[in-house]
Amino acid sequence: PGFTVETLAEIDSTNTELMRRARAGRAEPTLLVAERQSAGRGRLGRSWLGEPGDALTFSLGLPLAPVDWSGLSLAAGVAVAEALQGPPAPAAALRLGLKWPNDLWLWSGAQGRKLAGILVETATAAGAEAAAMRYAVIGVGINVRPHPAAGLSTPPAALQEVLPGIDAPAALLRVAAPLVMAVLGFAATGFGPFQARFDALDILRDRAVRLSDGTTGTAHGVGEDGALLVHTAAGMQAVTSAEVSVRPA
Ligand code: BTN
Predict the structure, then answer these.
(1) Which residue's CA is the closest to the ligand 1 atom numbered 7?
(2) Cβ 113 under 6 angstroms from ligand 1
(3) Which of 115, 167, 190, 202 has a CA between 20 and 30 Å from the CA of residue 94?
(4) What is the pLDDT of residue 131?
(5) Separation of 223 CA from ligand 1 center, angstroms?
(6) d(CA 215, CA 111)
(7) Whole-angstrom distance, CA of residue 161 vs CA of residue 144
(8) Could you count the other beta carbons within 10 Å of the beta carbon of residue 71?
(9) Using an 8 Å Cβ cutoff, are 231 and 221 in contact?
(10) Average pLDDT per block of 10 residues along the chain, 249 residues long
């Protein structure tokens, strides 16, 4: 089957829907956009809320040969950030960065706020190729229109703050092809070629950070597998899964 682009007026979650289809034997290359999600999901069991028009919410599902998946969400973040940033300009109003592992931040002045998030999940595809292939689902949520967010200390950033007039379809046009290319590239090469591109966008680099287990240190970029390198009292630690926050001064 070919590559399908599909838009739904409403679904619980585009990630959940593509995972459901894969488990039911329909692990097909699909880009699924939802105008509204009733149960959008974020990382670590959090929810992703949004009203129609506030955000671009979609998932890309692709059957891929098994690889080391750990860097996939970083590679996807690199592609989305670069696509939104556009060509380098000396006085670019748009200053994007990536907060490991997969948050996109927008800078205005000295203040950074979250603009977008990525949720990568993989399923074993039911059917004949199940042993050889996995189905990777890359879910992307980008705030497009400024909106108040209950329960958040800092309001999220929105794309329209820096690209006036942009709407969800226009944002999708910018990011879709670069994201597909990045995921296919990742499947062929692994994270290696994305390491320097991530570094150029890394907002934690040289900052004091605290890991979710309480360990503190200084962020030192990412390794060639996408692990966050943190210089701690006990030496350099490669962090593969943890919630990392910038330590308050
Ligand atoms: C995060 O910030 O923790 C990740 C947020 C990912 C949200 C997107 S919206 C489209 C896709 N479907 C979901 O349920 N989640 C992702």
Answers:
(1) 141
(2) no
(3) 190
(4) 61
(5) 25
(6) 25
(7) 9
(8) 26
(9) no
(10) 90 97 93 96 86 91 85 96 79 77 84 92 72 88 85 81 91 97 94 95 92 89 93 92 63
Beta-carbon contacts of residue 217 (< 8 Å; ≥ 6 apart): 208, 209, 211, 230, 231, 232, 233, 237
Whole-angstrom distance, CA of residue 215 vs CA of residue 34: 39
Instruction: Please give the pLDDT value at position 249.
Output: 42
Domains of the chain listed by start with CATH number: 4-202 (3.30.930.10), 204-249 (2.30.30.100)
Q: In what order do the strands lie in the sheet with 111-124?
A: 4-11, 30-37, 55-64, 134-143, 111-124, 103-108, 95-99
* Closest atom of ligand 1 relative to the 34 alpha carbon: 10
Q: Would you tell me how many other CB atoms lie within 10 Å of the CB of residue 16?
A: 18
Ligand 1 contact, 41 CB (< 6 A): yes
Q: Is the pTM of this model over 0.80?
A: yes
Amino acid at 235: G
- Ligand 1, from 119, 152, 241: best to mutate by most atoms within 8 Å of Cβ? 119
**Pocket lining: 59 vs ligand 1, CB cutoff 6 Å:** yes
- CA-CA distances (angstroms) from residue 235 to 19, 123, 195, 205? 39, 36, 21, 16
Establish whether this prediction's ipTM goes over 0.90.
yes
* C-alpha 14 chain-centroid distance: 14
Q: Which two tokens stand for residue 249?
A: 């001064």
Neighbours of 37 (CB within 10 A): 26
Assess whether the C-beta atom of 15 lies below 6 angstroms from ligand 1.
yes
